[in-house]
Amino acid sequence: MSLTYGNCLRTSDMSLLTTNKNDGKGLHPRNLHNRRYDYEVLIKTRPSLKNHVESGPEGQSTINFSDPQAVKALNAAILEQHYGVTGWDIPGGALCPPIPGRVDYIHYIADLLDSIEPDKSIRMLDIGTGANGIYPLLASSVYDWECVATDISEASLDNVAKVLKSNAALQSRISLRLQHDKHKMFEGVVLPQEQFDVSVCNPPFHASAEEALRGSQRKVANLNKDKAEPNSKPLLNFGGMENELWCNGGEALFLKKMIKESKQFASQVRWFTSLVSKAENVKPLSKLANKAGATDVKVIEMTQGKKQTRILAWTFQAIG
Fold first, then answer.
1. Is the pLDDT of residue 19 over 60?
2. Got the DSSP string for the chain?
3. Is the C or the N end of the chain the one with fewer CB within 10 Å?
4. CATH code assigned to 11-208+240-315
5. Where are the beta strands (DSSP E) in 117-209?
6. What are the residue ranges spanned by the domains of the chain?
């Protein structure tokens, strides 16, 4: 069974989607989404979004975040209005990344890199870009970075290529590479002598399909608790679960493999980074990076709505 490393709307992302307001949710200072979405402006950008907008408990405009079509329309509007990305779309059943959290990652990585070499032209490698290609789209739009996006799914890369055709400026800065070996992350996509300033990744969260299903049912049920009929089955806002939400061993094993393989590319990638959703994984993974020979290991804490997450970053090169 293949594994798409995709940047997907996982159960751990859902709390962020429901708290888009200026309430101290702790997004990066440069994040454009610290306040409520301006739905009037977004609808002007993407008129189809109007079909999904409804009144929230306080009378504010919102959408049903358990409705995948509504989330997709919102994402398309945000990307076009705030980042100039037109024609963004994903196939039916693919998963929608919450833009505020994804661009937060990019902002924090920018800070990490700027603290070392300010104003340097940046090359970024995205491990598992998914059908949405969200990290290279945001990094290239916000910071003009040159990006290489990889995935083991040819269909996912084909969809990103379709989006890039509508965005000529981004097309010149983003290249796509198919990873032919599902057991590898860097080997086969990083060319000999090629240099990257940073790699990014949003690893699969769950260890099994059953775990992913249970977690998503709980989260979506919470989103719909004021709407659902008693004992009704919650609407599941995800698809392609076997490809995007889980892998054997879950997040911990995935990142252990990444850290071990990263040593082979120590001279070609300055900083290796990944999201780490489970707090209990941070300490053992940091120890593993040190054991592998990393010269520096950093944990960058992020607060996004009710969600606490972090970036693990490690390098084998001399810094400073």
1. no
2. ----------GGGHHHHT--SSS-----TT-TTSS---HHHHHHH-GGGGGGEEE-TTS-EEE-TT-HHHHHHHHHHHHHHHH---S----TT--PPPHHHHHHHHHHHHHHHHTTSTT---EEEEE--TTTTHHHHHHHHHH--EEEEEES-HHHHHHHHHHHHT-HHHHTTEEEEE---TT-SSTTTSPTT--EEEEEE----BSSHHHHHHHHHHHHHHHTTTTSPTTPPPPP----HHHHTB-TTHHHHHHHHHHHHHGGGTTTEEEEEEEE--GGGHHHHHHHHHHTT-SEEEEEEEEETTEEEEEEEEESS---
3. C
4. 3.40.50.150
5. 123-127, 146-151, 174-178, 196-201
6. 11-208+240-315
**pLDDT one-digit tens code per residue, 183-207:** 999 999 999 999 999 999 999 753 4
Q: What is the pLDDT of residues 266-317, one digit of tens each?
A: 999 999 999 998 999 999 999 999 999 999 999 999 998 778 899 999 999 9
DSSP class of residue 147? Answer: E
pTM for the full predicted model:
0.84
3-state secondary structure at position 238? coil
